[in-house]
Fold this protein.
Amino acid sequence: ELADDGIELVVSRTLFPSAFFQMKIVGLCCFSLLTLPVVWYHLLSRRAGLIHCRYYYASFVALLASRLSLHRVKVIFDVRTLLPEQGLVNLIWRRENASFKFWKRVEKWMVACADRVICVSSPMTELIVNEHPGAAVETIPNFVDLEHFRQDGAHGKIRRRELRIENRTVLLYSGTLGGRYPAGRMAECVKLFCQAIGPESFFLVLTSSDEKRLEPLAMQLEANGLCRDKDWKTLDGGAGDVAGYLNAADWSLLVLDDFLT
């Protein structure tokens, strides 16, 4: 669609810390020194006119690089989750801590400098607008906004019939396998789910990962007495099919590995 409008899309993978990592002042300074030259080089070599960044770290460096660019560069700050408040939730700092106050000041600068700020729900938009009057904010809801994302029971029944699991209680995992999604912990969660629900339980995995990445999980599930196709199944559905299969689930599973915070 972008190409039809004459817009070239370039996806550049740069090593940025996870949203689960609360960076402090010294860390941000070191991080910026390491990554700013890389981002600035991409801006110049690709003559980018617009950068869309996820989360604070990438957006912060992009805003710095845009100020050093020889041509006008617009930056979209895709908030995803509120970094200062995330530190409070993770019990890393308190409101009176220097790190929290520092990130609130950085956030204020980023919101003021960004050409657009993207929020994932109406409450987040309201919070940003209240704290930063005049900010150019757009709301693009994701699954946390339950006013927009609700289960379609009729569509789910169609998918259940297709999979022959109409009378099963379905636990679903959707995403890649391996890496920060540990097979052992995932299999343990599935085991506990099956023990709690009983014989009618079923585990459905929607993933584009290959058999090599699936193998550790499959071995753990089989070791727990769960038979493939009888008690659990994997599907590699296209993007257009994912929503339908999500509707077939009663429960969903998200397991993350431990992070250094």
Remarks:
- The mean pLDDT is 86.
- The longest helix spans residues 25-46.
- The two ends are 39 Å apart (CA to CA).
